[in-house]
Amino acid sequence: MATFIIARLTFLEAIRRRILLSAFLLGVAFLILYTWGFYLMRQEALPSVPRSEISSAILRSGLNNFLTLAGLYAVNFLAIAMGALVSADTLAGEIGSGTIQAIVAKPVRRAQIVLGKWVGFAGLLALYLVLMVGGVMAVAYVLDGYVVPNVASGVALIYLEALLMMSVTLMCSSMFSTLATGGVIFGLYGIAFIGGWVEQFGALLQNQAAVNIGVVSSLIIPSEALWRRAAYEMTPPLAQVIGISFSGPMFTVSVPSDAQIVYAVGYLAVALAIGVRAFARRDL
Amino acid sequence: MTHAIETINLRKEFDENVAVRGLTLQVTQGEVFGFLGPNGAGKTTSIKMLLGLVAPTAGSAMLLGAPLGDRAVRARIGFLPEHFRFHDWLSAREFLDLHGRLYAMSASRLRSRINELLDLVGLTPFRDKQLRTFSKGMLQRVGLAQALLNDPALVFLDEPTSGLDPVGRRLVRDIIRDLRARGTTIFLNSHLLSEVEITCDRVAFIKHGEVLRVSELKSLVNGATSVTIRADSLTPPIIAGLQQWSRDVRADGAQVTLTVSDETALPAINRYLVAQNVAVYALTPQHLSLEDLFIQIVGTDGGL
Ligand SMILES: Nc1ncnc2c1ncn2[C@@H]1O[C@H](COP(=O)(O)OP(=O)(O)OP(=O)(O)O)[C@@H](O)[C@H]1O
Ligand SMILES: [Mg+2]
Questions:
Q1: Atom 29 (ligand 1): residue with closest C-alpha?
Q2: Average pLDDT, whole number, for chain A?
Q3: How far apart are CA A60 and CA A38, in angstroms?
Q4: Closest-approach residue (CA) in chain B for A18
Q5: What's chain B's average pLDDT?
Q6: Which of B44, B157, B190, B298 gets mutated to test ligand 1 (max ligand atoms within 8 A of its CB)?
């Protein structure tokens, strides 16, 4: 019960402090730019298409897939950023300002406070992703009647990535100051990002050392791997057979395995558990 | 009868720093208990330990007959933290609603209780205003309402009058009196000794996280008397002899001031002086204020 009271409070805070509104406005601005870019790219690329019907259809669907995944890549990044931004200050900030004191003195478990915040942020992220993913997908659909394959599993993986980063941020926020939390999360994101690129280059150039660096980085933080898997899921079967997918700015060459997804879920659960435990033991 | 609060050697260390050295204390049910001490004496830390905000390093305590951390007991406790800060994007009513829900109060009881309390603290006209627009004293009032939502059996007030205007201070005093009449136990941290003097049944003086003295307020204030003696030929040995009645003897020319715990010492002091052939011109008793006592008991070094 207390968990839901806190979840509701967390949601209400995002509304009252205009976090939801600004994220939404930013999202709309992004979608407008995206639509415009999509339209221009399509204009540019399609007239040069050879006359053959079949190759035209393949190229068209390839272009639509590429542009949609590029949009989803940006949405994926925005969702991570939003999850981290709202959760970085939540526990650290309330401990710092002292608003947490009267709440913790109530007949509630401290775990319920952390879990309630988690549920609230998870709800926020779900809402955000539904709107943004829906917006990006609507563009290709309206302009060309195109829908990427495996939307459900792709979006689920993106959501999992956002939840993962949010949980890790919440964990840090239960232990460190807001600033330190921001630093740690930024560092982790950097590792995931660079590691992902190094791994792709390694796979392309068949350099095992580079691939290993990528594997280690996705063990340290498996977020980028989730995105690459999501992009792979949403790539047309033909391209999958060749072994590539369009993951934003890069082609995905090495595809993260199911085991990596399981690892990410476990990582999330452990981060949340550590956060709960750290908060339960803290002097406030 | 169980005590409302009972602590045994409660101790808290923050790294090197010992905030509370060993707090042993009993608070009887239904009394207003003043917890006094200089800045940094460990008053707030003691309250935080009792409420589960801070984990004690050692020692034990019972609240309303149950060991620390019992959630059923916490439902019967009210707490106004020091430097009370809120989710200031909530309105007064939403804020009280949130805290009432955390107490797991039923919706109908909560609604009537919120109206009652907003009335009591005089914030009814501001009930739908966001707390960010409130002044410090208004926040203190809404915080006080928050501490009373659940009709608590035991209330912790950490400096409830800080930031309040005289009307607000009187309000707090009246609320405390009301609660006391209903049998609520109140644990009060305050630096406003004139108020403590009016409201408290018993007081504890603490310093460096140790109880220096616990006393009934009445006997403390009524009993402790400062005596000023004006006399000729007060030699050092004679002044030293006065120490059998008081540890606190100050000589200043033809005048000596000492503090005795009981007025009945006065005739004996007079007899002693006469027997030493001192010409006594005046022997003036004067009741001490709680502030004088505070300084006498905890000293002027501030305890820091
Ligand atoms: N979180 C903390 N970390 C380290 N030291 C602390 C912490 N909280 C309190 N202290 C130290 O513990 C001691 C007691 O502090 P406390 O706040 O309990 O004093 P207090 O009696 O309430 O003082 P005041 O009258 O100023 O409110 C102080 O020396 C303080 O510096
Ligand atoms: Mg204090």
A1: B40
A2: 88
A3: 12
A4: B89
A5: 89
A6: B44
In this predicted complex, what is the ipTM? 0.86
**A-B Cβ pairs (cutoff 8 Å, strict):** 70
Tell me the average pLDDT across A44-61.
Answer: 68
Torsions phi, psi of A215, nearest 5? -65, -45
Query: Rounded to an integer, what distance in angstroms lies between the CA atom of residue B256 and that of residue A161?
Result: 79
Q: Which of A73-77, A211-215, B17-21, B42-46 is predicted least confidently? A: A211-215
What is the rounded CA–CA span in Å between residue B137 and residue B125? 15
pLDDT above 90 coverage of chain A, percent: 55
Q: Is the pLDDT of residue A132 over 70?
A: yes
pLDDT at A248: 47
Residue B27, pLDDT score: 95
Pairing verdict, β B17-27 and B5-14: antiparallel
DSSP B138-151: HHHHHHHHHHHTT-
What protein residues have CB closer than 5 angstroms to ion ligand 2?
B 43-44, 82
* Residue located via tokens 């006997």: B219
Considering only CB atoms, which residues of chain B are within 8 Å of chain A? 14, 48, 51-55, 71-72, 74-75, 77, 79-81, 83-87, 89-90, 98-99, 101-104, 143, 146
Buried-exposed string A66-104: b where 16+ CB fall within 10 A, e elsewhere? bbbbbbbbbbbbbbbbbbbebbbbbbbebbeeebbbbbb
DSSP code, position B52: T
Residues of B in contact with A86 (CB under 8 A): none
Residue-wise pLDDT for A155-190, tens only, equals: 999 999 999 999 999 999 999 999 999 999 999 999
* Residue A126 in tokens: 């779900």
Verify whether ligand 1 is closer than 6 Å to residue B41 (CB atom): yes
Q: Taking each helix axis from N to C terminus, what angle separates A178-205 and A90-97, rounded to the nearest 10 degrees?
A: 160
Q: In testing the pocket of ligand 1, which one of B10, B14, B51 has its CB within 8 Å of the most ligand atoms?
A: B14
Kindly tell me if the per-residue pLDDT of A280 is higher than 90.
yes
pLDDT band at A249 (very low <50, low <70, confident <90, very high): very low
Among protein residues, the one whose CA lies closest to atom 19 of ligand 1: B40
Ligand 1 pocket residue status of B150, Cβ below 6 Å = no
The ligand whose atoms approach the alpha carbon of B210 most closely is 1
Task: Return the closest-CA partner of residue B294 out of B33, B34, B36.
Answer: B36
Going by alpha carbons, the residue nearest to atom 13 of ligand 1 is B19
Alpha helices (runs of H) in B27-165, residue ranges in sequence order = 43-50, 71-74, 92-102, 107-120, 136-148
